[in-house]
Design a protein that fits this description.
The protein has 341 residues and is an alpha/beta fold. It contains 14 helices and 9 strands. α1 runs antiparallel to α2 and α1 crosses α10. The structure holds 2-acetamido-2-deoxy-beta-D-glucopyranose.
Amino acid sequence: MGDKMLKLLPFVLLAISSVQQVSAAKNDPNTLSAKVAAKVMMEILHQPYNEHAYSDADANTNTNVDPDSNSDSYYSYHYRGPPQPSASAGGLQQKLASHGKYYFGACADPNTLNIASNVNVLKSDFGCVTPENSMKWDATEPNRGQFNFGNADQLVNWATSNGKMWDVCNEIFEENGSLRQSVFARVLGESFVTVAFQAARKTDPKAVLYINDYNLDSVNAKVNGMVSLVNRVNQANPGTIDGIGTQMHLQSGQGSTAQAVLTALAAANVKEIAITELDIVQAPVNDYTQVVNACLNTPKCVGVTVWGVSDTNSWRASSNPLLFDGQYRPKAAYNAIISAL
Ligand SMILES: *[C@@H]1O[C@H](CO)[C@@H](O)[C@H](O)[C@H]1NC(C)=O
């Protein structure tokens, strides 16, 4: 391991372990607290706890349509549990689970958990929540060495499921399938992916570890780059990456290519794949059902997460891309999915 690698490892791992701690289910007595987890990782590396480096300029490389564009985040958490008793019979979660899938999820954070109508829909229709922003790097460590898990803790407190799905690497690819410029790629090259996954595995052996990206919306260079990288990593070190997530922030009409994409991703050497941030401009019925059916028809696809409940809280609010309108009423696409399921 070179000097540069040694120097970088601590902050890669600190980021991972920092996030890991917040994710810990509160009712799991075996879970390490955030700081303890970070310290353990540092000790493993024989590095002082505070010796990590991170600069906004280094990580803020996003330029494309991307909900994380200002977040500087390569790590985020998803929660996954068995079908939730709290989801109503006949709701999205219950319907999708009846086909053997794990979850129909939505993103959430304290800002939307404060809205009663939103919470009602989360309870009736969704079995999984993904932190929208609260576990991104800029939220958990706004300044070097200054940690804030307040919003993340609120979300975890709200969530009741214990199963976890962890995005270890998020949005690391260029559109042409090569690795994006980042402090990780620049200094460590491709090996940062393996380093990050191995550290995540060590920190939380039970978590399902994902690599996740956007614009994997046709069988394009980025999809091929993703599949190739995952296969290289898992061939060299079997079982390193558990799953591939495709965000699916779609335009109208792109639902038609969802099946081809899922088939291509599922052909990679991974145990599972998932749709992680689905929303579709103007929420066309056809596109939404095509995407959900594509997951149903792909054995490795374990679940679908939509990027919000109501249009009014969407990062793309002006394009009304979600399943519930501004008054939290189900839209046509919602009804079509329920019928399809
Ligand atoms: C891929 O795209 C990036 C960003 O535009 C560029 O810097 C890089 O040179 C491209 N790589 C190849 C192999 O074309």
